[in-house]
Amino acid sequence: MKEKTIEINLKRKKLQDLLIKVKNKSQTFSIVRYYDGYMSLDEYTHMQQQFMDKIVYEHEQHILDYQENRNGYRDELNTLFHFDNEKEAMDYFDELFNQKLEVYDEYQYCEFENQQPEVLDIPLDSLLKKEYTRITPVTIGPVYEMFTFSMNVFDEVMIHMKKLFSTYKIFGGEFEDLCCYDVEGNVIFKICSHEGYAVIDEDIE
């Protein structure tokens, strides 16, 4: 898909006009909130394994991209970091991987097991999935509670969104980073509230 980046914090009519266009092309949507409440050991283990799988995959892909010079990746890094040989590049990738392992270890289960479950007013008839994750379509690292809904309740989000990059109180919690998906599950619109940008499929505009 061809993408367009939006860096203007739209509000009022311009924001609503954009969201209506996105709604008409979307099959499902998700929103997230930072999470530090209770989760089971199985939920924690799944969340951490998902995170580990991603950083291992990215580490392996970076090495392959460098070795095979995919899209000029090796040339770009050699120019940027002045690597004299492949070993120096591998040391660089290992350092990045170790930094991500430190991020992986930032959260231990003891931080969640004794917390009280948080009660939200989630419309269960429209809820497709709820998960605890450290990976969303726009960011990686912190712990999020991520909800995926059918479009039946999208208007509720529209009503509570005052600015494109702001958080919004809905369903009893404070949410952000709206992402919308097409019928095949592809992301066609995503907002990163913290970094202040959104990405939209050019076919929507």
Describe the structure.
A hairpin with a 2-residue loop joins strand 5 (168-170) and strand 6. The chain is of the alpha+beta class. 39% of the residues lie in helices and 26% in strands. The chain has two domains: 3-37 and 118-201, no CATH class; 41-111. Strands 1, 2, 3, 4, 5, 6, 7 and 8 form an eight-stranded antiparallel β-sheet that branches. It contains six helices and eight strands, in the order E-H-E-H-H-H-H-E-E-H-E-E-E-E. The protein is globular and about 55 Å long.
Gist of the model:
With 205 residues, the protein is of the alpha+beta class.
**How many distinct beta strands?**
8
Average pLDDT: 95
SSE succession: EHEHHHHEEHEEEE
Estimated radius of gyration: 20 Å
Can you tell me the residue ranges where pLDDT is under 50 for at least 5 consecutive residues? none
Question: What's the helix count?
Answer: 6
Strand count, sense and barrel status of the largest sheet are:
8 strands, antiparallel
Strand content: 25-35%
Give the CA-based shape: globular
Distance between the termini: 13 Å
Could you say which structural class the secondary elements and strand pairing correspond to? alpha+beta
